[in-house]
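notes to self, project folder thing:

trying the whole complex as one job this time. last attempt i did each chain seperately and stitching them together was a nightmare. four parts in total, labels are on each line so i dont mix them up again. if this works i'll redo the older ones the same way
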Amino acid sequence: MNQARAGTITAEAVEHHAARGFWRTYVFSTDHKMIAKQYLTLGLAWTFVGGLLAAVMRWQLAWPDTAVPGWGEIGPEVYNMLVTMHGTIMVFFVAMPILLGAFGNFLIPLMIGTRDMAFPRLNMLSVWTFALASLVLFVSFFVPGGAASAGWTGYPPLSARPAYTGVNWGLNLWILAQALEFAAFLMGGVNYLTTAIILRAPGMTFLRVPMVVWQQITAAALFLLSVGPLIAGAVMLLLDRTIGTSFYAPEVGGDPLLWQHLFWFFGHPEVYVVLLPALGAVLEVLPVFSRKPLFGYRWIVGATIVAGGLSFIVWAHHMFISGMDPRLAMPFSITTILISVPFAYIVFAMIATLWRGSIRFATPMLFALGFLAMFIMGGLTGIFNGSAPSDIYVSRTYFVVAHFHYTLFSAVFFGGFAGFYFWFPKMFGRILSEPLGKLHFWLTLVFFNVTFFPLHHIGLAGMVRRIANPLQYEALVPYQWINVVSTVGTFCMVATQLVFALNVVWSLVAGRRAPTNPWEANTLEWAAPSPPPHLNWGPALPTVYCGPYEYSLPEAREDYLPQNLDPARAR
Amino acid sequence: MSTSVEAPAIPGMPAGKVGVWWFLASEIMMFGGLIASYMVFRLGSSGWHEASAHVSVALGAVNTLILLTSSLTVVQAFAAAERENAPALRLFLGLTILGGLGFLGIKAIEYTTEIRAGFTPGAGIFWSFYYTMTGLHALHVLAGIVLNAILFLAARVRTPRRVELAGLYWHFVDVVWIFLFPLLYLS
Amino acid sequence: MLNWMQWLPENVSTFGGDVDGVIRTIWYVTVAWFFITLGTLAAFLILYRRRAGRRAAYVKGERLREAAWVLVPVVVVVILDLWLDLLGAPVWAKVKIERPATDLTIQVTGKQFEWEVLYPGPDGKFGTADDRQLLDELHVPVGKPVHIIFKAKDVIHSFFLPNFRLKQDMVPGRTIEGWFEATKPGKYELPCAELCGFGHSGMKGWLYVHPPAEYEQWVKEQWPLA
Amino acid sequence: MESGRRHPNYVKIWVWLLGLMAAGLVATLTPGGHAIGIIVIFATATAKALLVALNYMHLRFEPRLICVIALVPVVFALILAIALFPDFVFRR
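result (full assembly):
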């Protein structure tokens, strides 16, 4: 390990490290790239489960009186379970392992030019703790009473007493699975931050670190600093459920709103924990495919850090009508406006990056642009939620559902796919099919909007969240066709992902072998072979001479200038 | 475009120390969240002073004394490790472990007396906080004892860096108690 | 389909118009921004698509003069946001903080899975013999402010009157006050907007807004002795 | 060469810690003025925590970045505590 960390190692050492058995290569690996693939695999497996739950939910909402094919009648208890587990899985077991676990692990050491994470064994422990969390969450579906059904936000008192939901062990295991998941990403976060601070290659100053690494470590710091209060809150919740403490029981001095404060103190930074890595991937893709420097790299770094800091003081905008003191609404409304400054900056800088570029519409770029467009939409609908008086009406309705799917779903799907299509050649050494990728993009874009755009409308019409049967409400009966449209969109979107699966499988089996730098990009990972060997680099670490986005430099021969290329030789 | 190639490493910042401090940062937030909840609950309602009159200030004070002293011994262990003085290292690590065990022993006596008197975790909001805060803290003490015990058994290896990192964690646990003591026992 | 304002249910409360006003203003602002930003994006994509023999411009956007192209729109965004917020502040205060004086107070308690509606009776005081409790139905007169005391028995519920633009969570252990004033007689749906257990879906009541005479009649039926 | 600077007189710090602890304990005995007692108790606790953090945890000698890592969560925890006040303590 120490040897691996040292800058220069002998060629024999590389050979020695590379020659390991099956178990140490694929299962108990300390190699950051293998750990990234393990996170990716687990995340994709959970995507399947979470997507299945969503599809069942959508069927129930469109045709509440018909049994779901292959599942049966959905009772309201089961529906609440579907809602809860869909949210929990998608945020904590899909978005985080894929965007942080997979991308972070794979990219950080490669992009800053080192051989592995600062603590490779801790990294392995992280992925295995996550696997254990996955197991616990999966088991919770099958315990008597079923899985948790108090919403992914788990508001007490509903979650604090088994009698209120009828779920006992399911919810305890839900808390346990979350705690293990937090532990996994705490280990990961400590690793990311330490690696990026300590192990940068020669010449890789902080202001030459690629944007996605900045975003990843900001996300890691946000997670580390925000999850503590929620862990405290979760311990209180578990003790309330099991040994009879009374933190959330108002009759003996507790207060249910404490949980909401602690949850959203974590919850808002958590939104950025998921968003920033996706944003980072998109910020990497945009300059490569417009052949232009990122517009205002230093400003974006600053904006990211400012946004991260501000995310700690906006949480009560999730609680405008929660029964907290109404005088708190305005201060938190103002901080919410402040946080739009850095994000507006980043979005406009993304658009400005395209200005006078030479834009190639490859699949990663299409997904990046899709993210940008959908994220603008989600950001704008956020204003309806962020303004306290209009939130009186739209909160707790499907408008909110539409809003956060435009932000989070677009981050995970469009941002995630942009990164996936972009780094797939590096990760697996194969080229994905461009026509299939483009088909995948256009179908996803269309059906995403078919699914989620109408939800704004039905939310405005007054449909509240987490109801199993909209037809029970007279005001909603005339709008039921919207639910049908959204459901059809969902099924089409799920079917579209078969194109993606086909593309990946086909490429892995018969795809063209990827060259070292297929996109002609600058950052260091493209200097390593595809896929990079164990310990990434040959005997010597790369040396960095310039920033990550030196595209179309007038005095350079090529329209790109890899970070490890001595500029004197590029002319 | 600047093309300088200076080494980016920051002197005096070994990876282990940065990692431990980030870990401690999240720990600060966890205990911070717990203490913040306790403070606002306590200031926002009445009847706390009466409930907290039932804890033993004397035992709490002894425990504070023990933890403060164990902080001294653990930092002396680090100094001994840097001097490569193995016997002193073992002595100080051993004293630290003894201190931790003594702390847990006294905590156990306190819990027993309190529960016998009917002050279980379900006996009211003060006791909910009391058991959760001291219980979480005791778990941290236990983890610290295990860490120090591992170093004690491996003292022949003499790795001052590890002794320092385990010490950082131990001091943090001490600092938490420095605040828990007045919050739960003295006010 | 495209004008979101048409999707809101009919407004029948005095402050609903103000809430709708805020929503409408935000709607105009966001639609404008949507077309400006996506229009710019689309224009850039067409104008600067890859063409043979043309090299991208080397613009780093780090100097203030370049960054201003981004900073100016950001400032505009902030000013608009602040304006929206200032516009919203009095509306929020009107709905949630201030309460016009009235002599009609009703206590609504959420419990799994119904609304307990408690009238203080002719003496105007809760906890006396003439209190009357109804389940899942509220009766109020048109054109008169009504104070509501929100309570919850077991878990958190949310009192939602879509037609009144009024929503308020009910938290066990907290007594939360609110109000509304109806402008049009009729029968309005009152769903629970916060997940409260397996009966959440379908937990709803009805609010009956009566013309003054009809309301007097209803009061007489409820409290015949008074 | 560094070690002299890195190791302050730990025993002296320990004596200070014990003294502060005694002061805190004595403060609980102050008759009448409970508020003053509380202030003294928490002032001594903060002083103790600072002494431990600066000397035993060597924050006095660490690079700025480590101090920032240690300080940022303290600030955020304080923000959390302060922001919780209106809703739990001053609530109408």
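what i see at first glance: The longest helix of chain C spans residues 64-97.
need to look closer tmrw
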